[in-house]
From TrEMBL:
Entry's Gene Ontology BP terms: amino acid transport
Family: Belongs to the binding-protein-dependent transport system permease family. LivHM subfamily.
InterPro entries: ABC_transp_permease, BCAA_transport_permease
UniProt protein name: Branched-chain amino acid ABC transporter permease
Record's keyword terms, sorted: Amino-acid transport, Cell membrane, Membrane, Signal, Transmembrane, Transmembrane helix, Transport
Transmembrane domains' residue ranges: 171-193, 231-251, 263-284, 316-335, 362-383, 395-424, 436-452
Cellular-component GO terms for this entry: plasma membrane
First and last residue of the signal peptide: 1-36
Location within or outside the cell: Cell membrane
A single MF term (Gene Ontology): transmembrane transporter activity
Membrane topology, as annotated: Multi-pass membrane protein
Originating species: Nocardioides immobilis
Name of one Pfam family that matches: BPD_transp_2
CDD domains according to UniProt: TM_PBP1_LivH_like
Amino acid sequence: MFIATRRRSRSAAALVLLVAVLGALLAILAAQPAHADTSTADDEAVRCALVKPTDDDTISILGRICDRREKPPIAVPGVAVTVEDEDGNVIGEATSGEDGTFVIDLPGTAIEHLGKSYTVALDESTLPEGTKPEITSRTLSINIDNDQTVLFPIGDVGPSKPSKFTEALQLAVGGLVFSVILAMAALGLSMIFGTTGLTNFAHGELVTFGALAAFFVDRLPGRIEVGGAEITVIVGVFAAFVAGGVFGWLNDSALWRPLRRRGTGLVAMMIVSIGLSLFLRNIYQYFAGAQQRNYSQYGAVQPWEIGDILLTPKELIVILLGAAVLVAATSLLQFTRLGKATRAVADNPGLASATGINVERVIGIVWIGGAALAGLAGALLGVTQGFDFQIGFRILLLVFAAVVLGGLGTIWGAIVGAFVIGLFTELSTLFIDPEFKFVGALLLLIIILLIRPQGLLGRAQRIG
């Protein structure tokens, strides 16, 4: 009795802590402006703005030119910019506006530019007198059909390139953001696999569903405000979490539970999940279109400068919110009766049923929780980088890699594996071309499994 009471107290404390953290995060994010501040620093100088993402089917070069000698940096208007292809032909031109930004659309369809490189260059003769750019041209490799962003800081003579250490710190920030998102999706997949044995190839579509659910809320008429601050996208993110759980329950009730009752084998169910993935992906494309989508808020947030490192408020919020959700989920799995029942079902469903545990009820709750985590991951991924109908499919292989690397069906394995994969993919770009970063992560997976086949935490503790 004392042990049960203590466990309930721990669970209640964890839930209270989670609510407090979420409340604080909501207050911080709601206080941030939805778009870059373009107010004037004085009558002549304009603060350097963040360029607004486009919402079309073309690939655009989004850039800004800022004078970093001022605090905050000011815009540098009237600078001529060109884009050249690999043969040196000019395929686009623009002039920076009053806020220092420019947009150059690459001609043709997005697919024509995949795998190609383009050079974005400044015309130094159009720069203000007494200034010198830190770098006059940048080469961009088009690996995905998203807009590309480029920054040209100018001012006094400065280093042409940041040090490897500075680059590593900046990449680690992006790696942490991606890792917590990947960890939520991976934990959801690991929970479902542990309790049902199903290798669900449609899990990526649960991630995409979350991004679409948040986008649907964001596109509803009107704005959602609290105390004069707009929180439409924040509400959309939490709606994605709830809608993801409902969608997971529908998946299990309408498809997987009937198949389990009919005694369908795991291989056959895995093939069904592949078909479900293709079906849902085409449904998403039909209703949402194939173009890149962005939410109405937080697409352009003024970053904080911490030394040479740039950190945006939304990146910090994603890291803290993701960490809070992961702590809450693992605490529920470890310290509650439901968590104990989940581990029992994962270890031996027949024995768990014999001891009075409702196995089907536990599996249904796991589907709700796993899909809710995937939906939240999709919404946060959309906030950080935008999304399209294939966003979940693109990261599915990395989600599987994280689960296998950490150890199938373990509480912490999926999370540890996600952080290893997420940080490695970003930091590896210090030494290899960015287009090969996912290949490097999968190579790391192979090497570790050759040494430790059960994964990093394969026998630590099963959750299902």
